[in-house]
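Most newcomers find our protein records easier to grasp once they have seen one. A record pairs a protein's sequence with a compact description of its fold. An example says more than a description, so a record of this kind follows:
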Amino acid sequence: MTQAHLFKPQPETILDNETGRIVLVQQALSPESAGRVFDQLRHEVNWQQDQLRIAGRCIPIPRLQSWYGDAGALYGYSGLSLKSNGWTPTLLELRALVEHWSCVAFNSVLLNLYRDGQDSVGWHSDDEPELGRQPVIASLSLGASRYFSMRRKRSGEGRIKIQLDSGSLLVMSGALQHCWQHQVAKTSVDVGERINLTFRWVRPD
């Protein structure tokens, strides 16, 4: 799955200043490998649709998700505690690939399945305390292309919009999660399924 490419992808630095760093690696996985891994994850992962309690109502999250990681790598957000699953062989191979490109070790991964253009994730930052002060988040995309949007927290200005294609890897680090928010918005464009894996280091419980 992680065999060498006929060409070596060149990382592209999109942002690098006091507000954070973003590096994009196009085709960190070749198109053939990305398609094969997508099919494996689509059927192997324990997908579920969690719910958030907002104003006393339970609202289904507009996507499917699943949490995998080392024992003790617990994670939650917006009052939701995610049940951990152990690593699969496919996820271990992907972790090795992502660690190679990011030069960072990870002990967990959050997977999201966007079933169509109406599945989305709203504006947020990955700044939970268990991720540490300046977390490194490595985001691997498989399947349909979607736009990843960013905005400055204080002003809402300085927006960045990145098209994440299948096999691409986006590495976010530095103060990014404290200074920026990101989202994958709904789209009226007819798009297929997309799987996104965000690898993280969570302080063990």
